TrEMBL record:
Organism this protein belongs to: Pelagicoccus albus
Signal peptide bounds: 1-15
Pfam families: Glyco_hydro_43 (PF04616)
GO process terms (BP): xylan catabolic process
Family: Belongs to the glycosyl hydrolase 43 family.
Keyword set includes Nuclease: no
Protein name: Family 43 glycosylhydrolase
Record-linked CDD domains: GH43_Xsa43E-like (cd18618)
Length: 307
């Protein structure tokens, strides 16, 4: 099923004002957006909140994608992937991230393992497809990261993958103030070497890496309820220098899980808020705003347009 959504603007806009129209998706709740550019299209992969208005935990079973060529009209695709696609999983389709390598698309997901009961049982799995819109299937048949992985964290969620200029892939993840990173083999399905502790001031969860010029940016949720804060480095492996807050606390949502992407000449801050009238902590919505840098390459605070 394909549905189109429109923001207010009618052209590929240059000013934040043109993006008033958040949230992008209004006919369902969408969370934990992860952007990926492929060919001339921006794909935003999201989770899907199906919580009613009174229960007190996330209720999530599957993932969608929203594609746009102009930041104005979006197409909905999905669900493209669900808990049921991972035979070893039992529920909780938390944050995910998709990346292309060698013509294949790898979708790293947070999901609860049915056989692992240490800590919370959250694990990171990988699905693979030959196109950005699937069909996706479990690439390993087991989890890539679990509570049994040496030096894992209490909540193994929120994967973010980055392929550096030399072709080396890295997986970042973590929550509740504990972040981790590990190199991935070229097949994107196995760890290479040891799991490292992510040292970044105020890290809470939702790591995301992007690079602009020669600077690496590690953005993440800080504290809980979360702001979005960031650190920079001249190396993907750090050390990371703390740079401050780029997005304040949100009204009604305790999380705001961000991704950052350059698309057709603009940089975008892609996140969720609880901006729909019936939105809330467990009923979130994909939002998109412009991201700008100062002359030193530091990120300016986002002028959010979700409210
Ligand atoms: O959506 C479930 C969890 O909430 C995500 O994994 C976290 O990043 C937070 O957004």
């Amino acid at each position: 099923a394909v549905t189109a959504f429109s923001l207010v603007s009618t052209s590929c806009a240059e000013k934040a004002e043109d993006y008033r129209g958040n949230p992008v998706v209004t006919d369902m709740f969408t969370a934990d957006p992860a952007p990926m550019v492929h060919d001339d299209t921006l794909y935003i992969y999201t989770g899907h909140d199906i919580q009613n208005e009174t229960d007190k935990f996330f209720k999530m079973h599957d993932w969608y994608a929203f594609s746009t060529k102009d930041m104005v009209d979006y197409e909905k695709h999905g669900p493209l992937l669900s808990v049921d696609d991972f035979a070893w999983a039992k529920g909780d389709a938390f944050a995910a991230h998709t990346i292309e390598r060698g013509g294949k698309f790898y979708w790293y997901v947070s999901i609860r393992h049915k056989d692992i009961r240490v800590n919370e049982g959250f694990s990171i799995g990988v699905a693979v497809a030959d196109s950005p819109l699937g069909p996706f299937k479990d690439a390993i048949g087991e989890a890539l990261i679990t509570d049994e992985t040496p030096n894992s964290v209490v909540l193994n969620i929120d994967p973010a993958v980055y392929i550096d200029d030399d072709g080396q892939a890295y997986l970042f993840w973590g929550s509740w103030n504990e972040g981790r990173w590990v190199k991935l083999k070229d097949n994107m399905l196995e760890m290479e070497g040891e799991v490292h502790t992510l040292e970044a001031k105020n890290f809470f969860e939702a790591p995301f890496i992007h690079k602009r010029d020669d600077m690496y940016y590690l953005t993440y949720a800080s504290h809980y309820p979360s702001t979005t804060e960031y650190s920079t480095s001249d190396s993907i492996t750090g050390p990371w220098t703390y740079r401050g807050v780029i997005n304040d606390l949100l009204p009604k949502s305790e999380t705001n899980h961000q991704g950052i992407v350059e698309f057709k000449g603009n940089w975008y801050f892609i996140y969720h808020s609880a901006a729909l009238p019936t939105g809330g902590v467990y009923r979130r919505s994909l939002c998109v705003d412009l991201l700008e840098y100062d002359e030193d390459g530091l990120i300016k605070k986002v002028e959010r347009t979700d409210t």
